[in-house]
Write a structure and sequence with these properties.
alpha+beta, nucleotide-binding, 395 residues, four-stranded parallel β-sheet, kinase, ATP-binding, membrane
């Protein structure tokens, strides 16, 4: 109790701490315990710190996005998500669809872990060697310290999506999404389905292209600008988008036409881009990722014997997988994915997952009534806006 009181006193004494917060609780995520976490662990600390708040529970998918679009942001010092990472992503997308997006996206965001994937909360706390807990996440918000956060724009022709966590294709996406049919097994479903996928390992044809960060120019092969691959986002997609979407953030205006693009051809076992170090409380795919360095960390596994792959996947818990000779690990400023079919099975494609949600599915993956945001096959681009958003941080 003494340590708890001391932490709270330090938080209350902090300059610039929030006075009024809008709190979004997702009662359906993870183990469906977010409501209980808020009332038992979050609310007592906010009340003790004399912070006023407005509470809103989400009732359906994308509800948090709708809330962010219509919220009177002048009434609040921040938006707090008591949830997994998905609600935070919805809020970012809602703020960036507003007419006043440039002001709205600077409203500080906070995350209290209460879902299946809590990679953002884990990354923020681990940065300062704080233990991963609800109370420490709340203390960080009460204290009021903030840091900038990179936002990635995921783009395909007329469709745009904003990401703050990750994009994955191949093995990791297959495990994350296809294991949903075993949700009755609880968290064991991921380990179970991982073994299934290792027994029947899939490789995917395709190509990834990227603008490497300084120091990573040796990865891949250079793409000639007068070749068949036009990797410039500005000329290829952005012009059409500007005519279609009048309100909201239009994505980075930077043209990468003059940058040197490089490419890597498949087949691939896994392609994983990350904005922060942790994907969940116990998986760290991108140990060198920074919150606002203006780059995405790219993790590629092209080929790996099954026996070595089992050992490699276990190393994702502490980030030592990046030392494996079977892993390519680099930082990129812009990225282009051309996903193809499974090697040896041209009638079946893969799954592309961004921040825990399917954005594109190939043929023969799984039956789903939901319409995907993007198509599987045409190029998907990612660019990074350095420090576009703001997030409450322990320091």
């Amino acid at each position: 109790m003494g340590l708890w009181c001391e932490k709270l006193r330090v938080c209350i004494d902090s300059l610039g701490r929030p006075k009024r917060l809008f709190i979004i609780v997702n009662p359906y995520g993870g183990k469906k315990c977010a409501r209980k976490i808020f009332h038992n662990e979050v609310k007592p600390l906010l009340v003790a710190a004399d912070i006023q708040f407005t509470l809103q529970e989400t009732e359906y998918q994308l509800h948090a996005k709708e809330i962010a679009i219509s919220l009177d942001i002048l009434k609040y010092d921040g938006i707090i998500c008591v949830s997994g990472d998905g609600v935070l992503v919805e809020v970012v997308n809602g703020l960036l669809q507003r007419e006043d997006w440039a002001t709205a996206i600077k409203l500080p965001l906070g995350i209290v872990p209460a879902g299946t994937g809590n990679g953002m909360a884990k990354s923020l706390l681990d940065e300062v060697n704080d233990s991963y807990s609800v109370s420490n996440a709340v203390f960080a918000i009460i204290r009021g310290h903030k840091r900038p956060l990179d936002v990635a724009t995921v783009l395909q022709e007329r469709i745009r999506f904003f990401s703050v966590l990750m994009l994955t294709w191949g093995l990791v996406a297959d495990i994350d999404i296809e294991s949903e049919k075993y949700r009755w097994m609880g968290s064991a479903r991921l380990d179970f389905y991982c073994l299934m996928r290792l027994v029947n390992l899939r490789r995917y044809l395709g190509q990834v292209s990227f603008v490497p960060a300084p120091g990573y120019e040796t990865f891949g092969q250079p793409i000639l600008q007068n070749g068949n691959c036009n990797c410039d986002l500005e000329t290829q997609d952005q012009g059409r988008l500007d005519k279609i979407v009048q309100d909201g953030y239009q994505g980075p205006s930077t043209s990468f036409e003059t940058h040197e693009w490089r490419s890597i051809d498949g087949p691939f076992i896994s392609v994983w881009l990350h904005n922060v170090p942790w994907a969940s409380a116990d998986i760290m795919p991108a140990p060198a990722a920074k919150f606002a360095d203006g780059y995405l960390d790219l993790v590629i596994i092209r080929d790996c014997p099954r026996a070595s792959l089992i050992s490699l996947l276990m190393k994702f818990s502490d980030g030592t997988h990046v030392k494996s000779p079977y892993v390519m690990y680099l930082k990129v400023k812009a990225f282009r994915l051309e996903p193809g079919s499974r090697a040896g099975n041209p009638k079946k494609g893969g799954i592309i997952d961004s921040d825990g949600e399917v954005i594109a599915r190939g043929k023969g993956t799984y039956n789903c009534q939901q319409v995907d945001l993007m198509a599987y096959g045409p190029p998907i681009y990612m660019t990074v806006d350095q420090g576009l958003a703001t997030i409450f941080s322990p320091i």
